[in-house]
Design a protein that fits this description.
Chain lengths: 346, 283
């Protein structure tokens, strides 16, 4: 059993009436990647902020490398680096100035700061922009600098708070490669993300967070296995026809079909027979599908099942009040990604 | 300011001298960072560079042309100390704007994950603004000298005059830090601060002697710290100071009053700013 780099017990945090964290527990073994996966407002960012000592929890305990985040905040700060939507780089400073500022304030020895900044700029392919103010950077460059900023003092524990939200596919893939390298070097990473693919690719374990609670905590393989079965997705020509198809299927086929726009989706443990039954029923009612997809369940499906959005018939990722995280000001500063298209792209 | 976190001895237990040195190191890093900001956006500095020149010329030539000082002396000689204090008072708003801008972006959040002294964010801000204020004073003095203002005392007194003005400006910076953190964004910081700053700057003896004001207003103006600082500068520069004949304690002892006002403001604003900072960054 590896030593826990991060230990969280019964952590709670309220913002007004909203329980951003409603008693969460998890442990992250040293040297592993732990993914916190959930929709906007699920409480992921709140959890990271508590662990990064910038938010005081209302109850429960959290430790990083054995130090309590409230009582031993300064000791924790020597162990951590934070990147992503909770932190920011200084737009009026150059890339090099940003990294040197952080090196100084992280109490690094003066002689080490400039070489470390240079090394990180090179590693993140920013040497050419080292002496330009960050406000002239592209989104991808800014994010790379942001991750570099978290690494300046070589902290053993990294918090990456939605590091790729809003990035295009190429920049995202580049960042993923960097994160994998960090882990290969022995860092412990806590990653929050709305992207299932990201969690799937990077995390050793994934905790699915919803309304401030952890609804599942397992490996991605195990999470997908929890949802054994076949997914059938039927696209109709109009929403009205999709609605009629949904009604028919609710009555005739089990497994809670879900209706979303022109799509009707159902998951069944008896895929083939459910498919035959579905098509027979639709055909008998002159509801010929426009599109038809039959596939194995993705982590996406597992996520929808776990967060219960399926029962509500809503979209899994747009659910959740954006004010849930209580930090609306900063969360809103980042243009929210239209989640459905992002999920398709992923 | 928040109580320092108690740490286990094996983690980090520096002595007092070491702690002070590292605190000052953090303050200086933050100060330099703010100065770099200013150099990247020189227009930010217009209130301490262009505005003082404009105001000095406008007031001396526009108002000065119609002013006859009771007690004698030229308006030019009278007005310069007032312009110095007025410019320092209005430019102290920069602290509120700078701080609320920092708080609105995630920059402060990253700094708060670092093992730095949290107070250095506030102290660095007020020190960089003090340096900007020193620049502002130099520009006002240079403009004044160019149009014929002359101090009539020795170098030590003149420097003491600027020292008193800058001490007051530093205290105002801390007051503005409080205002900047008490409101939500940089824009509202600007708005609210002007509601406070303009009356403060103008209900005073900065531009006109208070003798001509309605008596209730004159009483306010005579006890206004801005009047004490302007009078202190006039006395130390050896310029005409019509307020010297007023029977209010601050007008009789302007230098002492200016220093006491400034220290009192610091005594209130520094701890309050620390508390507001903690409140503002806690959730």
């Amino acid at each position: 059993m590896a030593v826990a780099a991060i230990r969280v017990e019964g952590l709670t945090k309220r913002f007004g009436d909203v329980a951003a964290l409603d008693g969460i527990d998890f442990e992250v073994p040293a040297g592993s990647v732990f993914g916190l996966l959930g929709p906007n407002g699920a409480g992921k960012t709140t959890a990271v902020r508590v662990l990064a000592t910038i938010l005081r929890p209302d109850g429960g305990r959290a430790e990083v490398m054995g130090y309590d985040v409230v009582r031993q905040a300064t000791a924790v700060r020597f162990q951590i680096g934070l990147a992503g939507q909770s932190a920011a780089v200084d737009a009026n400073l150059t890339g090099a100035e940003n990294l040197r500022l952080i090196g100084s304030l992280a109490q690094m020895r003066r002689s080490e700061i400039a070489p470390r900044a240079k090394e990180l700029l090179a590693r993140f392919d920013l040497t050419h922009a080292a002496d330009r103010p960050v406000r002239t950077y592209s989104g991808g460059m800014r994010r790379r600098l942001d991750v570099a900023a978290a690494l300046v003092a070589r902290p053993p524990v990294l918090f990456l708070d939605e590091p790729t939200t809003g990035l295009d596919i190429q920049s995202r893939t580049e960042l993923w490669a960097v994160i994998r390298e960090l882990v290969a070097e022995g860092a412990t990473v806590l990653l929050t993300t709305q992207y299932l693919e990201e969690a799937d690719r990077l995390a050793d374990r994934i905790a699915v967070v919803d309304h401030g609670r952890i609804v599942a905590n397992d490996t991605s393989t195990a999470l997908k296995a929890q949802l054994a079965g076949t997914v059938i997705e039927i696209g109709m020509e109009t929403e009205e026809r999709a609605g009629r198809a949904h009604e028919l299927l609710v009555r005739a086929v089990a497994d809670h079909p879900q209706h979303d726009g022109v799509m009707v989706r159902l998951t069944s443990n008896e895929g083939p027979s459910a498919l035959i039954e579905t098509l027979r029923l639709l055909d008998a009612n002159s509801l010929t599908p426009a599109t038809l997809t039959v596939r194995e369940p993705s982590l996406d499906d597992a996520f929808l099942a776990l967060t219960g959005r399926r029962a509500e018939g809503g979209d899994g990722e747009t659910g959740g009040d954006p004010s849930d995280d209580g930090e609306a000001g900063e969360a809103a500063a980042e243009p929210p990604v239209e989640s459905r298209s992002a999920r398709r792209a992923a | 300011m928040s109580a320092t976190t108690v740490l286990p001895a094996e983690v980090y237990a520096p002595g007092l001298f070491e702690r002070l040195r590292s605190w000052w190191g953090d303050v200086w890093v933050m100060t330099r960072r703010n100065l770099i900001h200013i150099s990247r956006e020189p227009m930010q500095l217009s209130d301490v560079t262009i505005q003082p020149v404009l105001f000095t010329l406008l007031f001396i030539y526009v108002f000065g042309s119609a002013m006859v000082l009771a007690g004698g002396g030229s308006y030019k000689a009278f007005a310069l100390a007032g312009l110095l204090v007025m410019n320092l008072t209005t430019s102290s708003v920069g602290t509120a704007i700078g701080l609320s801008t920092d708080l609105a972006t995630g920059v402060i959040n990253r700094l708060r994950t670092l093992p730095m002294s949290p107070t250095s964010i506030l102290v660095g801000r007020t020190i960089s603004d003090l340096l900007a204020a020193a620049l502002c004073s130099t520009i006002v003095a240079a403009t004044g000298l160019a149009v014929g203002w002359r101090p009539t005392t020795g170098l030590a007194e003149v420097l003491a005059g600027f020292g008193v003005a800058l001490l007051f400006s530093f205290a105002l910076s801390w007051m503005n830090a409080c205002l900047g953190m008490a409101v939500s964004g940089a824009e509202s910081a600007q708005g609210i601060v002007f509601i406070v700053i303009f009356p403060l700057a103008f209900v005073s003896n900065v531009f006109v002697p208070t003798q001509g004001m309605p008596s209730w207003l004159a009483t306010i103006a005579n006890w206004n710290p801005v009047s004490a600082v302007a009078s202190a500068c006039r006395v130390l520069f050896g310029n005409p100071n019509p307020s010297g004949t007023i029977q209010a304690w601050p007008m009789q002892h302007p230098v002492a009053a200016a220093v006491i006002w400034s220290l009192a403001l610091l005594a209130v604003a520094v701890p309050l700013a620390g508390r507001l900072y903690v409140r503002r960054t806690r959730d």
